[in-house]
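User: Could you write out the 3D structure of this protein bound to iron/sulfur cluster? I've included everything you need below.
Assistant: Certainly. Input first, then the structure.
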Amino acid sequence: MERTIDLINERIRDGNAVVVTAERMPDLVAELGEEGALAEVDVVTTGTFGAMCSSGVFLNFGHADPPIRMERVWLNDVEAYSGVAAVDAYLGATQQSETRRDQYGGAHVIEDLVRGHPVEMRASSRGTDCYPRRTIRTELGLADLNQAVMVNPRNAYQRYNAAVNTTDRVLHTYMGMLLPNHGNVTYSGAGVLNPISNDPSFRYIGSGVPIFLGGAEGMIIGEGTQHSPAGGFGTLMVSGDLKAMSPDYLRAATMHGYGVTLYLGLGVPIPVLDLETVRATAVTDADIQVDVVDYGVPSRARPALRKVSYAELRSGHVEIEGEEVATSPLSSFRMARQVASVLADRISSGGMTLALPTRSIDRTKTARPMRETAQGPRVREIMDRQSVAITGDEPVTVAARKLLKGETNHLVVLDSEGRLAGIVTTYDLSKAVLRPERARSVEDVMTRRVITTGPDEPVDIAAQKLQRNNISALPVVDADRRVVGMLTGTNLSRLIGRGRI
Amino acid sequence: MKLVVTFSRKRGREPVIAQVVRDTGVLINVERAQIDSHEGEALIEVPDEACQLVRERMEALGATTRRLDRTILYDRDECIDCGACISICPQDVFGFDEEWRLTVDEGRCVLCGKCELACPHRALSLQL
Ligand code: SF4
Ligand code: SF4
């Protein structure tokens, strides 16, 4: 008998459906063969539980008396977008509190609501004839809202590149803490349990399909933003009723140095209607590959150090440049399993039936980078073209004289080929004065590990270097390490003065 | 036993820890040290039976000592077993069991503080 979705739903309603999690499928196929697995299994459930920054909720507060047309609205000091009529707002998960910064944000408000905690809502308006009220402040719980609908523009990434850091300082990223000199690797995603990895052709994952979202029954709206399935990075836009969600599957978090995010459990059931589905759901961690990407490079095109499979990542160690490096998942595999198995229980107990997509999701797309019509300012536009130079063998007294005469606080030290060898500041010279016996020539006092910038580097990146290293100037060097200028804090403040930052 | 030793540079620059090792013959394991120009703090590990002796000698040399009973504080309720703490801990305090649940071997902790920052769910905190 041909397998149809109606047949599967009938079996679900009768309590006879065989539902297994995607983690079980590789073994089942090995045991029973593809035909055998097809005969045996009706539904495969997937699950993931990780940071899903691109999430949020639409809230409807109902009308106050006298009524207000909210122009700005805050929930526990976290601003929500209220440019959608009078008393609707969209609260984004990553929006930060105006008073508690990254310690509290949209995700925390959402979690508080789901936990049954009341939140303080305040709103302001200029007042209109039909909506005369200008301000309002009230306490609201989830039950007081007419609707609280989670609508997440981009969830359930098919897979995600692993992260490493080749610089010599700690980086705090949305991929967690990255230790210097590739001291660790972080990754995200549930691999074998990942929804899209089990249906990469989007045959059964599409608009209208019922899913598990935050503990509630949700639905796939369609492709997610930045959906890029051609390269294996598909995403989903999903929605679900916040009122039916559970704090077990929805947890606010703060990535230190990055900000607030929402950890969310999401699972998609896949009906097993043909052999192709059996094959797709038999995917293993070893089959799913990602790049290990260097987050030390501050540009969109971050270089990849190598390719690695989820199996290797989940073993706890991967080899990077000849060294064994410890890995950390950022998503919870234990919780991903729980999502998949709770979803399986719901279906096998008749609590949830399946549906075919009402519209299919494009599987050939590639997300494009942003089109930038105005290039941000580059170092060459604002740097000082003059710099005062000295060589390492000259006495410190000459350096002092040059500093005074050049009215600068920094001298670049050049080697015999005219390349940058070090930097000397007034501070270095003051130290030299205190220890004349140890510091005779410039070489003795200069800093050799100079932090530099290049003429084409974006000013924002150079400014970050100044700030992070707590220094006041960066020599601007070309590819040959020849000094072509100097970038100082003063250059930056002039730029701010011109309103270009 | 772990001890936090605080010394002030104003009292001269004698190497307190080295001197106590020499005087007492007790092997001291320095797990963490933070020393700036005015004062320093070190976290050391000493055998339990030699603890009293080491403390007395250090205090005689002008340092203050304090027993450190606690290590990192782990809040199971906040933890979602993401594992973000595993690879950043210099002491391999964290790992997973077969169920992908976090394991915490507190005894190895040297209170470096990295995991407190790295945990996205505030499940780890230092208590000094
Ligand atoms: S404080 Fe440092 S040593 Fe202790 S558990 Fe955390 S990361 Fe490991
Ligand atoms: S980082 Fe925090 S939430 Fe994640 S496993 Fe470690 S203690 Fe648990």
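Residues B 72, 89-91, 93, 109-115 surround iron/sulfur cluster (ligand 1) (CB under 6 Å).
User: Perfect, thank you.
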